Description:
This protein is mostly beta strands. The chain is built from one helix and ten strands; from the N terminus they run ββββββββββα. The protein has a four-stranded antiparallel sheet. The radius of gyration is 13 Å and the shape is globular. It starts with a strand and ends with a helix. The structure holds FE2/S2 (inorganic) cluster. The site of FE2/S2 (inorganic) cluster (FES) has 10 residues, from loops.
Amino acid sequence: MTDWTDIGALTDIPERGARVVKTHLGCVAVFRTVNDEVFAIDDACPHKGGPLSEGIVHGRSVTCPLHNMVLRLDTGLAQGADEGAVSTYAVRVENGRIMLDTARLRRGQVA
Ligand code: FES
């Protein structure tokens, strides 16, 4: 079951930027790529909890601002020699608005 929640306009997020959505399970970082794709992942790096929303977006990846771990935005998986992963959340753009599936966040189920 999904529960799409409008969290703002696509243009509210700069290209290669992110916006943080606070949930009772923690902060979710919603990213916009240079191609206007959006992705939502936990805003805590699996290494030492760095704020991924403040990282550098390149392609479909983000580099953590603390120690440079690279994570895929679409899968949440660490790249290269690093190991680890963050949860990903369903998100889409509809008529210029960003819709985040908050059903899983409310039920407290984190992959
Ligand atoms: S906290 Fe992200 S790489 Fe260390």
